[in-house]
Amino acid sequence: MSFKTSEWALLVFTLGYVGAFLVHFLSAGNVEFIWYIATLLVFVGLVAATQRIARFPGWILWGLSVWGLVHMAGGGIVVDGAVLYARVLVPIAGNGELTVLKYDQLVHFYGFGLSALVLWHIMRRNFPVLDGTKTILAFAVLGSMGLGALNEIIEFAAVVGLPNTNVGGYYNTGLDLVFNAAGALAAMAGLCTFAKGQASPD
């Protein structure tokens, strides 16, 4: 398959940090995140194989790569004895598993907001009649929430199949889904705001 120079650079960047974190997780005996690296590589392969058809713009491709990077960092970088995924960024509300706002929740918000944009792009290319409608926005949000549920299934598989995971319990899963939905809604709201700004006269 043929890639643009910028796409090759992005692929090298992505595989570079994946390789670095793979070495890190192997040396630390972190089996859980080796499972996640395998999943990430499947998605990298899927995007690469479909790029000539999907024609994702560079900002989406870089956004996906950054998502993978912050995900790897969340499980691989330790600050004050705890991985980033366990860190509270701003103690807005709650305590324990119900604490908001954690690094984990911010990554979910970002990642599934980006997923909604990916789905929006795919639908407007394949179903141009939907472009500019509320329907495409609703489908993008619902589809992103579905991908978020798939992510929780993958985490559940890790809990069942691997010892000593740091996935969290029921409250953690519920908050993940909430932030997935919030990110998707925010992304589509941002699209609407951008579209109105573009349509406004100078």
Note down, in words, how this protein is organized.
The protein is mainly alpha-helical. Helices cover 74% and strands 6% of the residues. The chain contains six helices and four strands; from the N terminus they run H-H-H-E-E-E-E-H-H-H. The protein has helices spanning 5-28, 31-54, 58-76, 103-126, 134-161, 170-199, and strands at residues 78-79, 82-83, 88-93, 100-102. Strands 1-2 form a two-stranded antiparallel sheet. Strands 3-4 form a two-stranded antiparallel ribbon. Strand 3 (88-93) and strand 4 form a beta hairpin. The termini are far apart. The mean pLDDT is 89.
User: Which residues form runs of ≥5 with pLDDT under 50?
Assistant: none
Proportion of residues in helical segments? over 70%
| Apparent shape | globular
Number of strands: 4
Beta-sheet strand percentage?
Answer: 5-15%
The gyration radius over C-alpha positions equals 18 Å
With strands numbered from the N-terminus, the spatial order across the biggest sheet is 1-2
Order of helices and strands: HHHEEEEHHH
What separation lies between the terminal Cα atoms?
Answer: 43 Å
Mean pLDDT: 89
Structural class: mainly alpha
| Count of DSSP-assigned helices | 6
For the largest beta-sheet, the strand count, sense and barrel status come to: 2 strands, antiparallel
Structure characteristics:
202 residues, two-stranded antiparallel ribbon, 74% helix, mainly alpha, globular, 6 helices, two-stranded antiparallel sheet
Summary?
Helices cover 74% and strands 6% of the residues. The chain has six helices and four strands, in the order αααββββααα.
